[in-house]
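As described in the Methods, two query proteins were run sequentially through the folding procedure within a single session, without resetting any intermediate state between them. The first query and its resulting structure tokens are shown here.
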Amino acid sequence: MQVISIISTKGGVGKTTLSANLAGYLSSINKKILMIDADPQPSLSSYFKLIKPADFGLTEVLFNPSSINHCISQTHYGDLIYSNDPDNQLQSWLVGQGDGRFRLSSALNHLKTQYDYVFIDTQGARGHLQDASVLAADLLISPILPESPTVKELERGTLSMLSELQSDKDMGIKVPNLLGIVYKLDRTKDAQKFVTYLKRTSTHNNKYQMLKTQIPQSVVFKEAASQQVPVTKFMGLNKEQQRKAQKSADAIKDLAKELRL
């Protein structure tokens, strides 16, 4: 079982869309998938239709990690542990627990033989829940919009968070490698400039690497989400929409291939 956390300390960069589409594609090719919505704003929880909702969600998992099997809902595109912390109380609760940052990892140890891949969608902010999602992961992926605010937040936010966690390595903490992926890429010169900058800086920075795959800017992702299907299953209504859907679907498939999933 491989655990993949989609992280960024900036909101609105595409973490949920990336999580859902990677998970949905892999599920459609018969991989056993679990999605975990670790964001108090539960976008991933409603991305795909629940066909068998559980009575419990992430709150109960963190309260009692051994109860995780009772907190798993089913969708058409993999299983899901939904977010049920609308008031964002888990962050402060985890701070008060000595093992707070390790509870998600502990819970997932009960599922080692049940899934091929676990995808954790996270909040665009710092906190113990984000730390728990990082420390439960084997791999970290950060979607990066090719624009100045997101690039700056990668350097001063996401990478800073990972460095602070790694500073506790004497406690046995090991932070996985971070892979950046250019997300919502358009054809503007500014976008290409930031892509070049990211590639150049990552080659001289052992804190992260840039993936070769790039996810295009496309309304098709929103249209697929409105139908509660991954973009790889979305059928366009006309030739132009079908062309865009195929391009976006190919990007998700290329990403899975590059990640060797």
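Immediately afterward, the second query was submitted; its sequence and tokens are:
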Amino acid sequence: MKPALFLIILATACGKELIRAEARSTPDFPSTWSGATAPPTPVQQQPLQATAAPPQHVQTRGLIAVLDLTNKLRGADRDQLDGVYFANQVRAEVKRRVPGIGVMTRENIMVLLQSGGKKLSDCEGECEVDTGRRLGADYVISGDMLKIGSHYKVDLRLHDTHDGQLISGATDSGATPDELDARIGEAIEELIKPLR
């Protein structure tokens, strides 16, 4: 049975009239399938709207890995500073100061390294950038804790993992571990300036 015939029979059986659709043009649709056109409507000039001011800086996107800081202290001083604690401070400050960047947690880093047969303690010196690449990070922060003279130091480095270039470095210094801890934010601010 043809579809048109079926509709007529259905409409008759239901006791309803068939309504014939008629194509008419409208200002929104000036041309119909049959070729009829509506008179053109005048184009209204829209007032210019002020656009929002551009942001002060473009937030950096990407992923950053912060490795545990290497403890290069000797003797009794070695127990005064904790590389895991200071690395966590760096992670928190980077996320707070550059909110557009992804920061890998220590747990993520450990799991990814273990799946490749490495430990976090293996990632010192020359393999910092390589470790960042293995983790899939765009940037890697590494550093050392040491004592020079009577002052404790935290020496931080930021590398681009794509080309291995050193982007920046910063050092924090304090006569005591507490003083070093209190001022670590200043060193991190200096370190991440190129990412802001």
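DSSP finds five helices and six strands in the chain. We note this only descriptively and draw no conclusion about the first query from it.
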